[in-house]
Amino acid sequence: GWPPFGDYARTLLGSLDYSWLFTYAVALYFSGWIGDRVNLRYFLTFGTIGSGVSAGLLGVAYFADIHHFSYFVVFQIMGGIMQSTGWPSILAVMSHWFGKQRRGFILGLWTMSAPLGSILGIVISSFWADAESPWGWAFIVPALITVVYGFIIFLFLNIDPQHVGLPPPVHHLKEDKPAVSQGVTNPLTEAADRNGEVIVRDRAKADCRAQNALEKNTAVSQGVTNPLTEAMDRDGEVIVRDRAKADCRAQNALEKASTETVIGMDAAGRVGAEEQHSKREDPQEQKVKPKAVGFFRALLIPGVIEFSLALFFNKLVSFTFFYWLPFYVQFSYPDLGAKQSGWLAILYDVGAIIGAVSIGLISDVLHARATTCVGMLILAVPGLFLLSEYGDVHLAAYAVLLVLCGAFINGPYSLITSAVASDLGTHKSLKDNQQAKATVAAIINGTGSLGGALGPLLIGLITDTFGWTSAFYILMAACLMAGLLLLRLVVMEMKRLVKRFKKRRSTYGFKEDEEEDEWSLEEMLGFYFKETTV
Question: What number is the average pLDDT over the span 86-110?
């Protein structure tokens, strides 16, 4: 081997991996915080080019005949810092472009990039996998591709749809804010059905509309005002003696006040309705740059802590497979060489692609992110058991089990780091401040990456002491622990779905053929905390 990676190659390579993983995990917290406060196009360009440079300098060691272990450690740490700028910043950009509707499926397609990149890296490095090959090119070629892509980001990336004249996405499909605070009609309070009729979902407004209709019909039938309902005081003002009508007048006054708040009066006291209408049609003119939230404020968003801890154990399993799977393939089938083992390990990444897309689609259909994650984590346990106990029976069965384990392990990992992080980064508790996307993504992925750093080191120690069977039992226990950490959220999702099914028509008077609103995880958590918080 290449000095200093000789007799202690496995230990030194493990130390290099751990230095990168730990640096990446810690740097994620800072990168997410920075990403919500700077131009993401510049930040991503800097991180992408820096990642390519740090990887390329590792390959330079072969051609420059460098054998100092500290050299490799320094540029592994540099690579961890630079690569930490990627995931939270890119997820923030994706959240700018795509709203809640079908977010799981769309971001599931996007997260395919991680296993595809892993496959591409294995394919490229396999050309120089032999001991006699110039291994430096295995680092330099991917580094050059990464640097080129950094310049593509700088030239062509649009971080916000409003920069190209497109409307922003809808992050909240159910809104609780009163009309007077927004100055416009709540789109979830009134909506047009297929026949163009107005559906009133607010109970107070529904009563008011009924009262107005009754007054109109009474006036038409009588032709005069009911003297027992209205009387004139000395100043000529209307005295409302009917309690229902008084409530209705108050509701009408609230709507009028909310409208006048937005419209405003010009210097002569005239209403600038036409000008306001044009402003409503142009979201860029009303756009106010939100203030980024702090780290601890993002940490207290309901669901962030649970999903962060769940990802810690989920990523512990995922990164263990990422680093140790080729060695385990060789352990299971000693006749396979290093190159053949690497190609067989690609099947795990194929399963990761299938899992990322399928779990996103399922979570969109069920409107239950935590429940979908727990379901796949539970299925991962028997998959790991079969791979450990019966994987060496036949190579075909081994390949199928690799695909299934890749899907069940990386599916939740993909959903939590993409759709869930995006949901929580635009949580309703942030109100008008939506600048928490990169920070929340960094908290969740950073905590998960700490587990990813621990996993390969822990499994390496266990396999040397107790063997691979014990290591697989540790991985199964980690999957169960990740599922248990999400159990409370699963219970809340189930309660929310049952309440929605029982009360939606009786409370809001929905029609039978009306489409249902999107109910995502953060809405369910927000409802729960609002009910239980004093």
Answer: 85
